[in-house]
Structure formats: structure tokens, C-alpha cells
Amino acid sequence: MKNRNSKIAMLLVLAVSFMSFTVLKDKKVDVSTSKVTWKGYKVGGEHEGTIALKEGSLKFNGETLEGGSFTIDMTSINTTDLSGDYKDKLDGHLKSDDFFGVEEFPTASLKITSVSGKNGKYNVKGDITIKGITESISFPMTVSENSATASLKIDRTKHKITYKSPSLLETIKDKAIYDEFDINVELKF
């Protein structure tokens, strides 16, 4: 009887252990099918384009998002609403030290630090590093079976990108480039 009770107790301990066992799973992002777009705003207009993901993954506990990290290839920044010399000029200017300084800072990164929400609808907090400067941000993310979408608003001045910033130079109001720009992300795994 004592031996039987020991076996039952051992089975119960094993069952509880398996039930409380957390399965963390990384889902690697397919950088060839994922898409990152940007949109910047200026007085009287806007420009938009793409940036390539270099690598990324999301971390799940079962089906619930728990974290993730991404590396963005800043040398790939590209304007999609212009062509010819105007496009070449803006692409070159975005890569220069006035903006992202891609020669010294060829990548940017995002590391998710906390996640709240459920059922595929999350509020994500993370640390974004641009030009070697890390700032905390938060943004909504929606996750489905094989994809995720997110929309981020970035204040460029927090990364020492101040070219024609209206918050710093009152004299350029009619030629100002607004401090915030948008990043929209469509991830495929």
C-alpha cells in the first residue's frame, strides 16, 4: 500500500510539473516577405518609403506574445513616392549625418521589454536604438497565426536627428520637417 501511494504521489507531482511547464517559442521573422514602411511629414507635404529588416523574432509563451527583437538595415532606407534626381537626393540626405548617419550607424534595433494584452491584441513596450541612442517607446501590435502588424510613432529628436526641427529652430517654420515620423510593420513568420 505504501509503495502504491508513493507511485500515485509521484504521478501527481509529474502531472502538476507538466501542467505548469512554460513552453517559450521563438518565431523567426521571414525578412524577405516582411515589410517595414516609413512616412515623414513636413510643412505642406510628406514623403514615404521602405526600410529592410535584417533579422527579427518574436517570443511566445504558448500563443501569447512575450517579447522579441529586431535589427533594421538603415542603409536600405528608400523613398518610394519620388523618382529620378529628387529620389536620389532625398535617399542620400536620409542616409547622411543630418538624418540617420548610416555610414557610422548602419543598423537600428528594437527590443521588446514588456507586453500586455491577449487574444492577439497587445500593447508593446520596447527600447528602440537609432544612431546609437536608445529610447523607450510603446505601440500597439496585432498578432495572428503567421503574421503580426504594428504602428510606431518615433520622435527623431530623441535620437539627435534635429535637421529642420520646428521644436528647435523657430526661424524655419515654413520649411520645417516634423519631429515625429511613422513606422508601419507587417511581419511574416
TrEMBL record:
> Sorted alphabetically, which keywords does the UniProt record give?
Signal
Q: Which residues form the signal peptide?
A: 1-25
- Give the matching Gene3D superfamilies: Lipid/polyisoprenoid-binding, YceI-like
Q: Name one Pfam family in it.
A: YceI
Respond yes or no to whether keyword Transport is given for this record.
no
Which residue intervals define the domain Lipid/polyisoprenoid-binding YceI-like in the entry? 26-188
Protein name in UniProt: YceI family protein
Check the record and name the InterPro entries matching this protein: Lipid/polyisoprenoid-bd_YceI, TTHA0802/YceI-like_sf
